[in-house]
Every structure is written in C-alpha cells, then in structure tokens.
UniProtKB/TrEMBL annotation:
Residues 425-439 have a biased composition (Polar residues). This is Uncharacterized protein. It is a multi-pass membrane protein. Coiled coil: none annotated. The keyword Transmembrane applies. GO terms for cellular component: membrane.
Amino acid sequence: MNNKCTCAAVPKRYLMMTLVIVGIQVILWQTVSYTTYCFKWKDYVPYRQKEPFVYSHLLGLLLSLMPASLVSVNCGANRVFGASLLTLSVLLEVAPLAIHLGIHGLAGAQFLNGAAEVGRFSTTINYFAVHSISQAFVVTSLYGVLADWTPVDERTTVVAIVTSSIAWFVLWYLLFFDDPYHNESVTEEERCRVTEGNGRTSPSSEPGPVPWRQILRSTPVHLVCLCVAAGMAEQRLGKYNFLMYLGGASTFPSLSSVLALAAAVVTCGVASDCLRNKGLVSTTGAARITCVGGLTIHACAIMLQGLKESRWIEHIAMTALGVFFVGIETSHLDMAPRHAPVLKALSATTLGVLLGGISVFAISDTSSLASHRLAHVFIPVAQVVTALLYLLYGRADLQTWDALPELREQNAVCESASPKGCQEEVQTQRPQGNIEENV
C-alpha cells in the first residue's frame, strides 16, 4: 500500500466505521427483503415443520461462535470480517433457491447461511434472524475490528453510531486489510491514538493463548452474558427487537420515530464518552449508567405496554433498549480489547441457548396468553433483577487477564513484592488516562 496515503487527512478509523455500517446494512437489507417480499413463509412452509429451522439455527450458532472468535483473535479480525461479509452476502443469494429443495434442504442451507424461523402472522413472517456460521464470523470479528480501531475515549460513540444504523465490502481489503499495528497508510499519530489502551503496544505483539480459566471464572464476564441474554430475550417472540425494529421487517415505523430513536442512542453514546474523557465517571460507571438505566426503563415500559398498548410507550421501550444495547456492547471492548471476539462469542452463545430453550420448550404460539405473560411479565422482571445485579457487581474496566503476558507476570510479582510501587510502574507502561495527554 502507499505509505503516504492518508485519505485527505481523514482519520482512517472513521472510514473503517463507515464501511462497517454499510456492510452490515447490506446484509440486513438482503435479509429483510427476502423474508418480507420474496416468500410468504407461513403459507409455503407449515408451522408444524419449523423444527428443522430452529435446530439448524441453534446448532449452527453453538458450533460456530467460539471457533469464529478464535479465528478472529489469531488470524486478524479485519481479514475475517471482510471475508465473512462477502461469504454471507453470497450465501444469502442462495436462500430463495434453497427453499425449493424442501424443508430439510432449506434447513441445511440455513445451517450455513442463517436460521430462517417461520413466524405465525396471517400473511407474513413474525421473526427472522441470521445467526449462523457466516454470521457468527461477522459478529465476532466485528468486535475485534472495533477493539483494534477505536480509541478508548471514542468507543461508546462508535458503537452507538454503528448500532443505531447497523446493519459495504468492496473497499475493505483495499483500505483495511491489515490491522492498525501493521497498516502502513495509517499515520503514526493516529496509530498512537488508536492503539493506546488496546492491550497491544507494538507490531511485534502477537496474540497469545486465550486465558480461558480467568475468563470463565470472571464475574464481570458472567454478568455481561446475563445482561445480553436478558436484554435480547424478547426477540424470540418477535417483539421489541432493536435491530429488526429499525429494519422494519413486518411493519415499518415512521421515519421520524426511527430518527428520534437513533438520535437518542447516539446522543447517549457521545455523552458517555464525554463524561469518561473528562474524568467525571469511570469506565465502569458509564457502563452501569447506560446498561442499568436502559434495561430498567425498557422493562418498565414493556410492563406498561402489556397493560395498554401505546405507540409512545413502544418508542420509549425501544429507545431504552438501544441505550442498553450500546452500553453492554461497548463493555465487551472495554473489558477485553485483546479478546473482545471471545467475549462476544460467549455472550452470543448464552443468548442462543436461551432463545433456543424459549423456542423449543416455552413458546407454542406467539399470540397465546402464555407468550403474552412471558413477554410482558416474566422477562421484564428478569431484566430488572439482571440490572440490579449489574449495578452491584458489574464492571467494564480493563480486566487483568486481558493484559499482555509480560504485564501479567509483572503484576504477579508486584502482588508478592511491593504492590503500590509496582502498580505505578505498570500504569506508566499501560496508561489509561486521558489519551490526548499521552498523544
């Protein structure tokens, strides 16, 4: 690549974010267009034959998320993300053809491409999601890209912008084939700003073994997985799904509603970064405000929506869910920038197991009284309890097990020798204060 290419002085991380948004948006557009316009899934495939869809979705999810995260960590998140987007978009083109192969042929295709779960609206689908092998690589590698390319004081803003319009890939390899530690077109000033606090201090910092024991025994990791599962559990019912609400798979909300929701979510992300950058709140404090506040308000609004349906209450619920989504997803990057794909794979696997359990054992009819109670009573109560647990025990600061091996060894020596003096020495090697001052 050209060493002097700085793209007209535009920071490369902003170009990266733009391509991420456009790439994922293309995937969602393809998904929504196939499910809403190409086929009336309920008329074509009887609901009693939907089990292969559920099983293929769950099996593909559980078997692919963790390997995808390991590939992203060891092979480079940028490469994996670009290849996954290309593969997924190509496989989505096969979905209309695969349906003519019958229910089992389509289930086999969806094992690779995504899980098409047939809903029970009278004329169209109720819920459609892509969580498969290709999608698992997209999701997990995305977190590796964001952890590598976003500085600490911009993470919440970037995640808010990406998720508020989440949803391509021709220029990806041309501009971002290498990570910021090896990319020759990135200026040294931007490289310093981006890599500060990401756990890798030089191009020679190779990925080490994943500290599975520390990750699996970490209470903050447990709470992140629990929050993701609790916050997104309702999407199995086809209700209050933040991403599908923006995409409007079945009913398109008004443009003003979507713009207001996106503006509120992005504003919360910018405010969170400003508060952290000025030192008014810590990283953990910002995560607790967005996660606990968003999830609690969402749960209360859902309870009210169960008593009396209102479009305004639904907007409040979706906006609060968006704020929660931004907070909890940013915590993946803050807690473990070097192992963000692994952490995302764990939380997504927990969510997949929960959604599969609800689908197989709890939901027989999304329009039934039991489904209504589950969506408007039991799940909101579980969300409030989860929010309280995160408020008391949740953390979003950089975890010790995510540090480089040499820093972990130095921390161990410090704990047995002189903790105070050693902590100051480690802090000078891995500053986490105001990045502007360091640059």
